[in-house]
Specification:
- This protein is α/β, with parallel strands linked by helices and 236 residues long.
- The chain folds into 2 domains: 2-101 and 208-234, NAD(P)-binding Rossmann-like Domain (Rossmann fold, 3-Layer(aba) Sandwich), CATH 3.40.50.720; 103-203, Dihydrodipicolinate Reductase, domain 2, CATH 3.30.360.10.
- It is 36% helix and 25% strand.
- The strands form 2 sheets. A 6-stranded parallel beta sheet has the order 2-1-3-4-5-11, sandwiched between helices. It has a 5-stranded mixed beta sheet with strand order 7-8-6-9-10, with helices on one face.
- Helix 3 (56-65) links the parallel strand 3 and strand 4 (70-72).
- Helix 1 crosses helix 7 (208-220), helix 3 runs parallel beside helix 4 and helix 5 (103-119) runs parallel beside helix 6 (143-155).
- The two termini are 25 Å apart.
- The mean pLDDT is 97.
- The protein binds 1,4-dihydronicotinamide adenine dinucleotide and ligand LZUJQKHR.
- The ligand O=C(O)C1=N[C@H](C(=O)O)C[C@H](O)C1 binds at residues 75, 99-100, 133, 137, 142-144, 185.
- The site of 1,4-dihydronicotinamide adenine dinucleotide has 24 residues, from helix 1.
């Protein structure tokens, strides 16, 4: 498979190495100083985009307008995702966004939803979340924390919204974001009562899970059409 790699930072470099190991070729690497040209999009089967919250929208739009299937793992730009979905439909394109490409986290999302659903009958338990990442991370809360929060809000009628600040409002889910050293990504959801607590946690040991998931999804993506989800790939 021929890959157009957009973003050559921590994720882009690791994806390049893993994709080559799996026998793929990188037709071009586009970083902040480069442009995505029609020539580049014509040479590739798929684009993989891990850049910056401010640049994801334009990168994805450009690929969709040039008929190149694209997956993006960039977080922190989701207010513009509905626009991208419209552009994808208008161009009969293929687009996939996942806040986290690791298989373990996507299983964790399901466990989180199940727990949120059964906890709604037990409102003596207050939910909260902590996410911990490396100090280079640009956005807070993490994209994964937002997906977890959306899962809780969808399944538990007692929780109406999330906040990244302290809150006394029982209908609001507090998310605490910590930035420490080189931590790849840890997410913990806790339900606490006066007598005990229940916690579920996912801890990434390295970026390998994100990288492997992104390349496996990229192999599957060119045969798909429309706005697709990682759940479709994982058959979850
Ligand atoms: N969905 C997932 O599984 C994961 C998502 N991420 C997200 O991916 C994004 C990138 O993460 P890292 O690689 O760790 O960041 P990084 O800061 O190491 O690399 C980002 C790269 O994008 C480049 N860049 C910035 N603007 C660009 C533009 N307009 N066009 C092309 N390249 C541009 C930068 O120069 C840099 O090389 C972040 O939003 C992060 O939250 C990170 C890990 C896993
Ligand atoms: O920036 C990161 O590193 C990560 N970003 C994603 C997120 O915001 O959830 C996924 C993973 O946690 C690593």
């Amino acid at each position: 498979m021929k890959i157009l790699l957009i973003g050559h930072g921590k994720m882009g470099q690791a994806i390049e190495a893993y994709a080559i190991q799996r026998g793929h070729s990188i037709v071009a690497i586009v970083d902040v100083q480069d442009s995505i040209t029609p020539i580049l999009t014509q040479q590739a089967d798929v684009a993989i985009e891990f850049t910056h919250p401010d640049s994801a929208f334009e990168n994805i739009k450009c690929c969709l307008e040039n008929n190149l299937p694209i997956l993006s793992g960039t977080t922190g730009w989701l207010d513009r995702k509905p626009e991208i979905e419209q552009i994808c439909k208008k161009n009969n394109g293929t687009f996939l966004y996942a806040s986290n490409f690791s298989i373990g986290v996507n299983l964790f999302f399901k466990v989180n939803r199940f727990l949120a659903k059964i906890m709604q009958q037990h409102d003596q338990y207050s939910p909260s979340m902590v996410e911990v990442h490396h100090t280079h991370k640009k956005d807070a809360p993490s994209g994964t924390a937002i997906t977890l929060a959306e899962g809780i809000i969808a399944e538990n009628k007692n929780i109406k919204s999330w906040t990244n600040q302290k809150t006394e409002n029982s209908g609001e889910l507090p998310i605490v974001s910590e930035r420490i050293g080189e931590i790849p990504g840890t997410h913990k959801v806790t339900y606490q009562s006066e007598v005990d607590q229940i916690s579920i946690e996912h801890e990434a040991y390295s970026r390998d899970g994100f990288v492997q998931g992104a390349v496996l999804v990229a192999e599957w993506l060119p045969a798909q059409k429309g706005v697709v989800k990682i759940d479709d790939f994982l058959k979850l």
